């Protein structure tokens, strides 16, 4: 059997958890005419780890028979997240068995139901909650309990991206320090999607935000509610806290960059402040001086959203999604994305990898008629 056949045999398990046995078209045709089948699907897959632009390819997957609690979902949109790229590279702590379909987040519309499904209807919008592996495909079949119905009166690019970055922003603001109205936070990576969400969620709760960026425009962040925006070079002064004016010293710092940028976050923190690291875009270590630990009594913490993916947290996780989508619907939460047709996936991946400069979050649009 050639490698292509091996890929097809293994990938059917992405559509149905625990079922790594591919039924070919002939076998499916021999089944009872009453069986409910998903449509054939196009998927972006990878058979081994490596550079995503080299190891991914688009293939056709055959129909899948829907069992009792299965739901067939026609994907509407799915983003390319850094964690998706890291999984393909083989450097993310949680990785699916290979071969695998890429993607971990997205929104789709219910296409068909297994005979035992009771809480979803054809036409519902659903998202995988918690997120799972395998959203870069036109149709997904998974059991009913894997899907969460969401409101339809938000753009698809928001529904597709609500479960990772906005949830991360919410948890960063709520899980580490008791923030009260009038308090201040400081963050780097402020132009990222998480950073934009942090600014707005803080503003809604009357929390001041001090934002560190590299060299991009500050106007966009101020429109979102940022109190102060500084470039890293502006903070390269001895009396950095003199730049804060009447703002209080931040009690919480949020770091997704590392290196020099994380050191600037630490410099701005008040006595006994806390810095939480949730990323390392600069690929440089976080360094803290002995005096900052002893005399300022600073605390260093880490955050990984994966801890919120446990089954016992599913109800709370889904409640967060509903809350955040209501904010989107009401115009209180917004961020930049680029919707890209599925057939242009390679170009979107290049942009997500930074090969073409800086771009907003790349979101694959499956609704284009040319994708199927």
TrEMBL record:
Keywords, A to Z, come to: Fatty acid biosynthesis, Fatty acid metabolism, Lipid biosynthesis, Lipid metabolism, Mitochondrion, NADP, Oxidoreductase, Transit peptide
Enzyme Commission number(s) from the entry: 1.3.1.104
Q: Where in the cell is it found?
A: Mitochondrion
Q: Which CDD domains match?
A: ETR (cd08290)
What's the chief localization of this chain?
mitochondrion
Q: Does the keyword NADP apply?
A: yes
One Pfam family here = ADH_zinc_N
Biological processes, Gene Ontology terms: fatty acid biosynthetic process
Listed GO CC annotations:
mitochondrion
Enoyl reductase (ER) domain mapped to chain residues: 50-364
User: Which principal EC class is assigned to this enzyme?
Assistant: oxidoreductase
Q: What is the annotated signal peptide range for this record?
A: none
> Has UniProt tagged this entry with the keyword Transit peptide?
yes
Recorded catalytic activity of this chain's protein:
a 2,3-saturated acyl-[ACP] + NADP(+) = a (2E)-enoyl-[ACP] + NADPH + H(+)
Q: Which InterPro entries match?
A: ADH-like_C (IPR013149), ADH-like_N (IPR013154), ER (IPR020843), GroES-like_sf (IPR011032), Mito_Enoyl-ACP_Reductase (IPR051034), NAD(P)-bd_dom_sf (IPR036291)
The molecular function terms of the Gene Ontology recorded here are: enoyl-[acyl-carrier-protein] reductase (NADPH) activity
Subunit structure of this chain's protein: Homodimer.
**What family classification does the UniProt entry report for this protein?**
Belongs to the zinc-containing alcohol dehydrogenase family. Quinone oxidoreductase subfamily.
Protein name as annotated: Enoyl-[acyl-carrier-protein] reductase, mitochondrial
Give the organism, scientific name: Spirodela intermedia (Intermediate duckweed)
